[in-house]
Design brief:
- The chain is of the alpha/beta class.
- It is built from 15 helices and 13 strands.
- It folds into 2 domains: about 260 residues, Type I PLP-dependent aspartate aminotransferase-like (Major domain) (Aspartate Aminotransferase, domain 2); about 130 residues, Aspartate Aminotransferase, domain 1, CATH 3.90.1150.10.
- The strands form 3 sheets. A 7-stranded mixed β-sheet has the order 1-9-8-5-4-2-3, sandwiched between helices. The protein has a 3-stranded antiparallel β-sheet with strand order 7-6-11, with no helix packed on it.
- α3 packs parallel to α4 and α11 runs parallel beside α15.
- The structure holds pyridoxal-5'-phosphate.
Length: about 400
C-alpha cells in the first residue's frame, strides 16, 4: 500500500504535460509510428549533437536488430560483462551466438578492459560494455583494445563485417542517455549505442529504446537509421503513414523484417520528457549529491558520479554497505521496506541466474562481480523526490545498519 510516507524506487515523471501530450495523440487519429516518432528521433539526434538516431520499441529489440544486421549467428562470440541485466546476454542467445562474460574491474561494477581484451578470439564479432548505473565506461580504452584486435577478426561473407573489418563496438547505454565522456554525450564514442526508455529509466516512453549510429566510413549512418526503421516494420518498403499519404498504396517487402517500431503514443511521452531532460538531470544530480554527502563516512562506498573524463546520467545511486554480507544487505532491504522505502539491487551477476548457470557460467569465475553484488543497494532516485525524502532515506538506512551491529 502506498501513502504519503511511502518512498517509491523510481516512479516515472508523469504530469499534466504528459497526459495532455498522449491525449492529443489519441485525439489526432494517428497512434502508431508517425510525426511524434519522427520528432522524437530528431530531438534525440539534436541532443547528441547530430548523430543519426532511430527510435524503436525497446533497447532489447533495438540491439538485437544490430546483432542480426551485423551477421552475428551460430559459432560467433559476443563479449559482455557478467554484471548487467539479462537483456544484454539474452539477445546474443536469440541470435544463436555465445555470450562471453567478463568480470568487473576490481571494486567496480564495470567490465574490466584488460579481461575483455584477453577474452577476444577469432570468433569475437561484437564487444558490448554496459554503462551500469549511468556511469560511462572508459570508451577510448575499449575502442583502442577493440581496434588493436583487428588482426584476429574473421569477417563473415555477405555481411557488414566485411566493410567494418573489425569487431563491432556496441554500447549498452540503457542507463546512460544524458551521461558524458570527455565532454561528449554518450553516443559519440561507440560504433552503435543503444538506449532504453523503459518505465524506470531517466527518460521514459513507457517502453522504448533507440540506436545512435556512429560507424566509420564507408557506412552511411543516416541511411542506416532508415534501413533499421524498415527492418523494424517487417522489412516493408513503406510505413503505414506513407502508405496512406502517398500517391500509391503499393509496397514491397525487401527483407523478412521484424516488428519493433515505436508508436506515436510512446514518442509523445518521450517528446515531453526530452524537452525537460536538462531539468530532470539537474534534479537527479542534486539527489545523488545529497546521498554522496550523507554517506561520506566509514562503512559506505559511494558510486562515481563525476570525474575529469566523465559525468554520470545519475540513473542509479549504487551504494555499497562495506561491512555487510549478502544476507545482511537483504535484511537491510527488508527493513527499509518496513519503513516504506523501496530500494533495489543492480544486478545479480548473470551466472547467478538459472538459465546461464545451466549453460555452465560460474559465479566463481567472476569474483569482482560477486563481491560488488553482495553488498550493493540501489537507493531511490526520481525527479519529484524531495530533499526531505532523501534525508529520510539516509537517516533510516544508517539507523537500520547501526541497529544490526
Ligand atoms: C543494462 C540494461 N541493458 C538492457 C536493458 C533492456 O532495456 P529494455 O527494457 O528497454 O529492453 C536494461 C533494462 O533495464 C538494462 O538495465
Amino acid at each position: 500500500m502506498s501513502n504519503d510516507r511511502t518512498i517509491p524506487f523510481s516512479p516515472p515523471r508523469v504530469d499534466e504535460f504528459t497526459i495532455e501530450a498522449v491525449t492529443s495523440v489519441l485525439r489526432s487519429g494517428w497512434i502508431t509510428t508517425g510525426p511524434q516518432t519522427m520528432q522524437f528521433e530528431q530531438g534525440l539526434s539534436d541532443y547528441l549533437g547530430g548523430i543519426p538516431v532511430v527510435a524503436l520499441n525497446s533497447w532489447t529489440n533495438a540491439c538485437e536488430l544490430v546483432l542480426r544486421w551485423f551477421g552475428v549467428g551460430e559459432g560467433d562470440e559476443v563479449i559482455i560483462p557478467s554484471y548487467t541485466y539479462a537483456a544484454t546476454a539474452n539477445i546474443v542467445v536469440h541470435c544463436g551466438a555465445t555470450p562471453v562474460m567478463v568480470d568487473c574491474a576490481p571494486g567496480t561494477c564495470h567490465m574490466d578492459v584488460d579481461a575483455m581484451a584477453s577474452a577476444i578470439t577469432e570468433r569475437t564479432k561484437v564487444v558490448m560494455p554496459v554503462d551500469v548505473g549511468g556511469w560511462p565506461v572508459d570508451y577510448d580504452l575499449f575502442r583502442e583494445r577493440v581496434t588493436d584486435a583487428s588482426g584476429l577478426f574473421r569477417p563473415k561473407k555477405g555481411t557488414p563485417q566485411e566493410q567494418l573489418k573489425r569487431i563491432l563496438f556496441l554500447s549498452d547505454a540503457a542507463h546512460s542517455f544524458g551521461a558524458s565522456y570527455k565532454g561528449q554525450p554518450v553516443g559519440a564514442q561507440a560504433d552503435v549505442t543503444g538506449y532504453s526508455f523503459h518505465a524506470v529509466k531517466n527518460l521514459t516512453t513507457a517502453e522504448g529504446g533507440a540506436l545512435a549510429f556512429n560507424l566509420p566510413d564507408p557506412f552511411d549512418n543516416a541511411a542506416l537509421t532508415k534501413y533499421f526503421k524498415m527492418l523494424s516494420l517487417h522489412g516493408q518498403s513503406k510505413d503505414a503513414l506513407s502508405k496512406i499519404q502517398g500517391a500509391s498504396w503499393r509496397y514491397d517487402v525487401v527483407e523478412a523484417g521484424y516488428k519493433c517500431n515505436m508508436t506515436d503514443l510512446q514518442a509523445a511521452i518521450g517528446n515531453v520528457e526530452l524537452a525537460r531532460y536538462g531539468e530532470t538531470l539537474e534534479r537527479r544530480k542534486a539527489i545523488c549529491e545529497q546521498y554522496a554527502a550523507g554517506f561520506n563516512e566509514e562503512g559506505f562506498s559511494i558510486p562515481p558520479l563525476r570525474s575529469e573524463l566523465r559525468e554520470s546520467s545519475y540513473h542509479l545511486f549504487q551504494l555499497r554497505l562495506e561491512a555487510l554480507n549478502e544476507r545482511q544487505r537483504d535484511e537491510v532491504i527488508a527493513k527499509m521496506r518496513e519503513e516504506e522505502i523501496a530500494t533495489n539491487v543492480h544486478f545479480q551477476p548473470l551466472p547467478m541466474l538459472t538459465f546461464y548457470k545451466n549453460r555452465g557460467y560460474r559465479l566463481e569465475d567472476h569474483p569482482n562481480a560477486a563481491a560488488f553484488y553482495a553488498n550493493e543497494i540501489s537507493l531511490p532516485v526520481w525527479y519529484g523526490m524531495t530533499d526531505e525524502q532523501v534525508r529520510r532515506v539516509i537517516d533510516t538506512l544508517k539507523r537500520i545498519i547501526a541497529g544490526m551491529s
